[in-house]
Design brief:
Pfam family, one: OKR_DC_1
Cofactor: pyridoxal 5'-phosphate
Domain Orn/Lys/Arg decarboxylases family 1 pyridoxal-P attachment site: 286-515, 558-735
Shape: globular
Keywords: Aminotransferase, Transferase
Protein name: Decarboxylase
Strand order of the largest sheet: 6-15-14-13-11-7-8
Strand content: 5-15%
Distance between the termini: 76 Å
Structural class: alpha/beta
Radius of gyration: 30 Å
Largest sheet: 7 strands, mixed
């Protein structure tokens, strides 16, 4: 039994193993039962059942009765019943039929012996089905009384209820924590007073966690304490408190604001039941989508400029009817350019779009959310244009998405570019070190220009998965300038809100933590203590080395977050959300509205808006489990690739130790799959390290197989129907998401094994010459890589009133220089004139953005002086797609004569800004 206890201990401690891990355990049990029923070893079955029983306590199905039946059959030595019952349970779990069929909850086989259809029960059946969820009940009632308590809850179910839920009972704070972490189907929690602190199971890592939270005595297991813990890890959950004391005092306690409602424990439990259903209904409601469905069913006469609405021009046509048949009638019935009749205006929402955005703000932890229907490129430009004006300085990651650069052009703001750490071996950049950002702020301060630095604009997470320590970045920058605006481009990271591990690294997650810290009286003491230690005039060197604490009394928290909802949630292409948490928003609301008017389409797509509404509903109700599954899929891919003897000979998925330099991994964390790593060590990394790696983004190195990224991407797409994301010179980016399944993993692994086998065969048949050619190719891709060019500087013509230590420039003037055809010239990349001018002058000044794909960031921006390293990089590039560059014409440059004519721009922009 010692091994059994050890297995249970590992499972209860390992929260990264989500739905897939649970399914694997059940399949293991069935296989062990099958072997036992055929005369095999019973001990293997007993061990599998013991391992499974611990965590199954935290799930509604199969529940106490079926688990007891399994244990009874095992104790009686009944292998046949053990096999039959475990098989029925697994089939019910796979098909989710237990959510609708009462027979699945019976220990007796009431069917006709046929194997049930393994398709999900909603497919191929027209009967309406009620969504199913589970409610966690935390109680001090002895476990011997739980069956009666479960029966009492089940009797509350009524045919008119919109949803069906199953109660899950636990008797301690630790078990409640484990249930919330392990069971993604929990949507509500009822917390009764009188429960204990400790789990019934020994779990050392869990002990360490509770100890770190100050939970050491039984008296620490208070209902409110548990409510705050659960709200922190699963903020989407509805929490209800049941108290037999002074409920009026408890309800009036500000600490109870995390609770949806407080009940007096002896009152009618039906009210609690109805409240649970109402809470889920609140999240289920999709104001815009619900109204759009009603609109589509109404007889509408359309006399507006949208002939496709109602679909008559499509379905009555002999020539385009196939489009209607392909998309279906509802798409056209729900089309309209109207903003009345139950619909709403995207530009001036006052009805259901406004309500949908308010629900999205709740879901994302923001003060307000804007729906955007033409992509996060537009969200970024809206934010930049609304928050910056001519002459303002923004510290910007040079490798950010082009929309930020173009936003600076539109706003007339001056970007002060900062560089990310390079990953030359893989032809990609990481993220910008905090020290670099702080140095830029301190330089601006030394130049007397800190007042003009208005914004920090960074990408989180990066294309390749680098995640900032968002809270630390904001706190340390606010310690230097307390009214900074932060724009976090989280296009690829919207799902992270729904993971308790990753949420802290999102802009809104960190902003909420900072806001809570500011309200804590200890924050002022921490700030003043550090100020005393630093002295009155600390040097820049000291400030750069110190983890700075801002003055909570001076902070003006201003945080903006953009998400490509379509990239990580169930939204239609171009669906985006812009989240706001800005204490000063009232001062910029008018100009923000102008930015919306500038960029938002006056003809937004109704289906796209509806998909944003629905994607919010899905993530609030099942996002936790979906994200856990996406992470688990990623771990499965990493493990399968890196441990397979054949595949790992030619391919590998890079771990955190390869993607994040050691100096930015202060915790010593190496990778999610490294020996000895569990959720606690990963959590320490997520809390402490300067940069972490998004587990769902996997850099698959293919250069060691002789393929460059573009080649390999094409091979996967054209031959195997596998689509991947970004490429680099010697890698491709694989991303798991809420859409992926274990079957997808199997397909990818099978393909990589096939390709690896073909390489093996080609090398074996080709002899020594083939081996030499292969090694040369691999060396070219993996060793002979071009150095990555840093941003040089803006030409002095575009520097205007710039300081001596800062490097910002007037990108707007540089951009419009290209509009003067006579003031531009072209030089082909291999023209000797380029080398002569690099050596002797005059300077080569870019007239436009040049963006190669990969790596996908501007290696030249308008007004930038082009250096030797940029030319060397361009000459070594072997990619086909380079935006802003035509190989036949060459580099577009601003002529020396044009630069001379422009001279230095007037320094009036800052004055105009100050006057306004």
């Amino acid at each position: 039994m010692a091994n059994d206890a050890k297995q249970a201990q590992q499972r209860i401690d390992q929260f990264f193993s989500g739905p897939g891990g649970r399914a694997d355990n059940w399949r293991d049990l069935v296989e062990a039962a099958k072997a036992w029923s055929r005369g095999g070893d019973r001990a293997a079955y007993d061990k599998a059942l013991s391992t499974l029983a611990v965590t199954e306590e935290f799930h509604g199905y199969p529940g106490l009765r079926l688990m007891a039946a399994l244990k009874e059959a095992a104790a009686a030595g009944d292998a046949a019943t053990s096999h039959m019952l475990s098989t029925r349970i697994v089939q019910a779990l796979q098909t989710k039929s237990f959510r609708q069929h009462a027979s699945d909850w019976s220990a007796q086989d009431e069917g006709n012996g046929d194997v049930p259809d393994l398709l999900p029960p909603t497919l191929g059946q027209s009967a309406a089905r009620r969504p199913y969820f589970e409610t966690l009940i935390v109680t001090g009632v002895p476990a011997s009384n739980w069956p009666g308590l479960l029966a009492e809850w089940r009797r509350l179910r009524r045919p008119v209820d919109a949803f069906v839920y199953e109660p899950v009972l636990v008797g301690s704070l630790e078990d409640a924590f484990c249930a919330a972490m392990l069971n993604p189907y929990i949507a509500a929690v009822v917390i009764n007073e009188g429960f204990g602190l400790r789990s019934r199971h020994d779990a050392p890592v869990l002990r360490a966690m509770t100890g770190a939270m100050g939970l050491n005595e039984e008296s620490d297991a208070s209902a409110l304490r548990l409510a705050h813990i659960l709200k922190r890890i699963r903020p989407e959950l509805d929490l209800y408190l049941m108290s037999n004391r002074d409920v009026e005092e408890l309800a009036g306690n500000p600490e109870a604001d995390v609770v949806r409602r407080v009940f007096y424990s002896i009152e009618d439990i039906l009210e609690l039941h109805l409240s649970i259903l109402e809470g889920v209904q609140d999240r289920f409601d999709t104001p815009f989508f619900d109204n759009l469905k009603k609109y589509a069913q109404r007889p509408i006469g359309t006399f507006h400029a949208l002939p496709i609405a109602r679909g008559k021009s499509v379905f009555k046509s002999d020539w385009i009817r196939d489009m209607g048949e392909f998309y279906g009638l509802n798409l056209f019935l729900a089309e309209s350019s109207a903003t009345t009749g139950g619909l709403d205006s995207m530009l001036e929402p006052t009805g259901n779009i406004k309500k949908a955005q308010e629900k999205a703000a709740r879901a994302l932890g923001a003060d307000r959310v804007y729906f955007v229907t033409n992509g996060t490129s537009t969200s970024n430009k809206m934010a930049v244009q609304a928050l910056l004006g001519p002459g303002d300085i923004a510290i910007v990651d040079r490798n950010c998405h082009k929309s930020h650069h173009y936003g600076m052009v539109l706003a007339g703001a001056q970007p002060l570019y900062v560089e990310a750490f390079p990953m030359t071996e893989y032809s990609m950049y990481g993220a910008v070190p905090l020290k670099t950002i702080k140095q830029a702020l301190l330089n601006a301060k030394a130049d007397g220009r800190l007042d003009r630095v208005k914004m920090i604009d960074l990408t989180n997470c990066t294309f390749d998965g680098h995640i900032y320590n968002t809270r630390r970045v904001m706190e340390e920058c606010l310690a230097i300038k307390p009214d900074l605006i932060f724009l976090w481009d989280e296009a690829w990271f919207g799902f992270a809100r729904f993971s308790p591990f990753l949420r802290r690294r999102t802009a809104m997650g960190a902003a909420n933590e900072i806001e809570a810290w500011m309200r804590d009286p200890k924050s002022v003491a921490a700030y003043e203590k550090q100020q005393a230690e630093l002295g009155k005039k600390p040097s820049d060197e000291v400030l750069l080395k110190t983890r700075l604490i801002p003055d909570p009394r001076q902070i003006r928290l201003r945080v903006y977050q953009t998400n490509s909802t379509h990239k990580s949630m169930s939204a239609i292409r171009q669906g985006s959300m812009l989240s706001v948490k800005d204490i000063e928003f009232h001062t910029v609301e008018a100009q923000f509205k102008e930015a919306v008017f500038t960029h938002a389409s006056t003809s937004p797509n109704q289906q796209l808006i509806a998909s944003l509404d629905v994607s919010r509903r899905q993530m609030e109700l099942e996002g936790y489990g979906l994200v856990a599954n996406a992470m688990e899929i990623a771990f499965a891919i990493r493990n399968a690739v890196n441990t397979n003897p054949l595949i790992s000979r030619y391919f590998r998925v890079l771990g955190a130790d390869a993607m994040v330099p050691k100096e930015y991994r202060q915790s010593g964390f190496t990778d999610y799959l490294a020996a000895g790593t569990n959720w606690a060590s990963a959590l320490k990394s997520l809390n402490d390290d300067e940069f972490c790696l998004d587990p769902t983004r996997m850099t698959l190195v293919c250069g060691t197989a002789g393929y460059d990224g573009t080649q390999f991407k094409g091979l996967l797409a054209n031959r195997y129907n596998i689509q991947v994301n970004k490429t680099s010179r010697n890698s491709v980016l694989i991303q798991s998401n809420i859409n992926n399944t274990r079957s997808d993993v199997a397909h990818l692994v099978r393909v990589l094994a096939e390709i690896s086998g073909e390489i093996d065969q080609a090398l074996a048949k080709g002899g020594a010459n083939a081996k030499v050619a292969f090694d040369v190719r691999v060396n070219s891709l993996m060793k002979d890589v071009p150095d990555l060019p840093n941003f040089s500087h803006f030409h002095e013509t575009y520097r205007g009133d710039a300081g001596t230590k800062t490097n910002e420039g007037d990108i707007r003037s540089g951009f419009y220089s290209a509009y003067d055809a006579a003031g531009c010239e072209y030089l082909r990349l291999n023209d000797p004139e380029i080398d002569r001018r690099l050596k002797n002058g005059p300077a080569l000044v870019s007239a436009n953005f040049v963006i190669p794909y990969p790596p996908g960031f501007p290696i030249m921006v308008p007004g930038q002086v082009i250096t030797q390293e940029t030319i060397d990089f361009m000459r070594k590039l072997d990619v086909k797609e380079i935006h802003g560059y035509d190989a036949a014409e060459g580099l577009k440059l601003v002529t020396t004569e044009a630069l001379a004519r422009m001279g230095k721009p007037k320094a009036s922009a800052p004055k105009l800004k100050a006057a306004s």
